[in-house]
Amino acid sequence: RTWGVVQLSFSASAILQSVMMREVEVDAAVFTFARCALSSVILFAMAATSSSGVVLPRAEDVGMLLLAGICGMYFGQLYLLLALKHVSVLNYAVISALQPVSTMLVGHMASIELIDVGSRAGQLKLLGVLLAVCGGAVIVGNQAGGSGTVSAPGDVVLGNLFAILFMLGAGCYPLLQKQLLLSGRLNQANITAWGMASGTAVIGLTLPVRFSDSFDISNSAFFTFAVMLVLFYMALVASALSYTMITWALDNSSPVFVITFSPLQLVMTASFAAVFMGDEVKVAELLGMVSVCVGLWMLAASRAF
């Protein structure tokens, strides 16, 4: 249920961000930095009310927190916005649903969650990976080559590249969070807050490089009421509360099992996009969605063996 609520908030945020990036001239880096900065304030306020209060991370945790910030916020939020500027919400949702694949493979290579190919569980995991990857390839190929594509081919390729980098970063984030939780040196609230803060710092360091001297934020659409409303929702619900629930879920289960429920976002996002944005869902995309969902179900079923 917790992951379902998280995916619902992510689905709504994907729709809002897609409309904002296509209809309003708001820079992705500026918006993501503001979102993460506001989320950090909220998360530190939540950490301050916890039993241990705000705790400074130890030196051995700084590197892991920095990596969590890079994966979860820099790739997981900034690259999401960059992807939505070039591809449809459904295209993003399908690639996002492949997060369990990257989580499982990286977890195996890092010896966090090993795959035993000789067991029934390991075989189900590998078959699930194959089905998920094939399903995602069908959707992406149909999006890039179909006659209904609204973006130029070059934009679709670039958008999918951003989406894949987002998927890899977001897939590694739960593994890093789980390792921090297992260390026992920081509680859930502090891990989430410091991870968000480190991601904010990394994104902030890119802003001077991104903009020229002629850039003037006061002349952009950033300070409009609509953008501020979306920013507040993203910071409070899609970042602070959702990432807090993710950390709680990771503290009670494994990263692969938690992230396997990402197809919920695929279904919700596709439904929202069809109802509110008029996106057409083609037969090939439906088949790809089914393949992704079956593959990810197999990943979850492998835990029963």
Automatic annotation (TrEMBL):
<keyword id="KW-0812">Transmembrane</keyword>
<feature type="transmembrane region" description="Helical">
    <location>
        <begin position="156"/>
        <end position="176"/>
    </location>
</feature>
<dbReference type="InterPro" id="IPR000620">
    <property type="entry name" value="EamA_dom"/>
</dbReference>
<feature type="domain" description="EamA">
    <location>
        <begin position="8"/>
        <end position="139"/>
    </location>
</feature>
<feature type="transmembrane region" description="Helical">
    <location>
        <begin position="283"/>
        <end position="301"/>
    </location>
</feature>
<keyword id="KW-1133">Transmembrane helix</keyword>
<dbReference type="GO" id="GO:0022857">
    <property type="term" value="F:transmembrane transporter activity"/>
</dbReference>
<feature type="domain" description="EamA">
    <location>
        <begin position="158"/>
        <end position="299"/>
    </location>
</feature>
<dbReference type="Pfam" id="PF00892">
    <property type="entry name" value="EamA"/>
</dbReference>
<feature type="transmembrane region" description="Helical">
    <location>
        <begin position="63"/>
        <end position="84"/>
    </location>
</feature>
<dbReference type="InterPro" id="IPR030184">
    <property type="entry name" value="WAT1-related"/>
</dbReference>
<protein>
    <recommendedName>
        <fullName>EamA domain-containing protein</fullName>
    </recommendedName>
</protein>
<keyword id="KW-0472">Membrane</keyword>
<feature type="transmembrane region" description="Helical">
    <location>
        <begin position="256"/>
        <end position="277"/>
    </location>
</feature>
<feature type="transmembrane region" description="Helical">
    <location>
        <begin position="221"/>
        <end position="244"/>
    </location>
</feature>
<dbReference type="GO" id="GO:0016020">
    <property type="term" value="C:membrane"/>
</dbReference>
<feature type="transmembrane region" description="Helical">
    <location>
        <begin position="124"/>
        <end position="144"/>
    </location>
</feature>
<feature type="transmembrane region" description="Helical">
    <location>
        <begin position="188"/>
        <end position="209"/>
    </location>
</feature>
<dbReference type="InterPro" id="IPR037185">
    <property type="entry name" value="EmrE-like"/>
</dbReference>
